[in-house]
Amino acid sequence: MSEEEPTPGSVRPGGRTARTRAAVLAATFDELGEGGYGELTMEKIAQRSGVHLATVYRRWGSVERIICELMIDKSADIALPDTGSLRADLLGLASGIGVFYAAPRNRRVMEAVVAAAVRQPYAAEMLRDFFRDRRREAAVLVRRAIERGEVPADTDTDAVIAALGAPFYYRLLISRGPIDQDLAETTAAAAYEAARAGVFRHPAADAGER
């Protein structure tokens, strides 16, 4: 194993710190693919990555912190489309989510983070923040649609994205069914039609009418 112990702030991005991170995340991804969260240990990650165990502990402290970081890293692969149409944008996003979770190892990453969230407050907070941040990022699709006049001006952008994503996580974590293109298409269509019909009105708008 290589001993990698850079002083915080002393290493340029792309240097040893970045290589250590990449090696550890890749090793964790591979270990999850082979054995799942229940068999994942810091020792296995260190051995597979070639990074000294002390370095892995010092930087991350626990398996749960590594898998949370891995989830954030991997989820960046899901692109936010900009087609000029909310219907097409929602379908593009849903298709991206579907392709991502159709890969067994990506499913295992999410399953591992959810399992960790049950046991550790850090992982629970991380999971909550992850979904909040992803919804906020994706909400730009709905804001563009509001500007184009496709949906009511008081549409709750966060609620639209939550409605788009929820069926995937129900299928992934509860019903344990397949994540496929059919799910992506029906979910996107439902979210689009509901948004167009004004189902996702912002709570402030309803309060103002009382």
TrEMBL record:
One annotated GO molecular function: transcription cis-regulatory region binding
Location of the DNA-binding region in this protein: 41-60
Statement: the UniProt record of this protein carries the keyword Transcription: yes
Keyword Membrane assigned: no
PROSITE patterns, per the entry: HTH_TETR_2
Top-rank taxon: Bacteria
Pfam families found in the cross-reference section: TetR_C_11, TetR_N
Name of the protein: TetR/AcrR family transcriptional regulator
InterPro entries: Homeodomain-like_sf (IPR009057), HTH-type_TetR-like_transc_reg (IPR050109), HTH_TetR (IPR001647), Tet_transcr_reg_TetR-rel_C_sf (IPR036271), TetR_C (IPR011075)
The entry's keywords: DNA-binding, Transcription, Transcription regulation
Protein source organism: Streptomyces buecherae
Domain HTH tetR-type stretches: 18-78
Gene3D superfamilies with a match to the protein in the record: Homeodomain-like, Tetracycline Repressor, domain 2
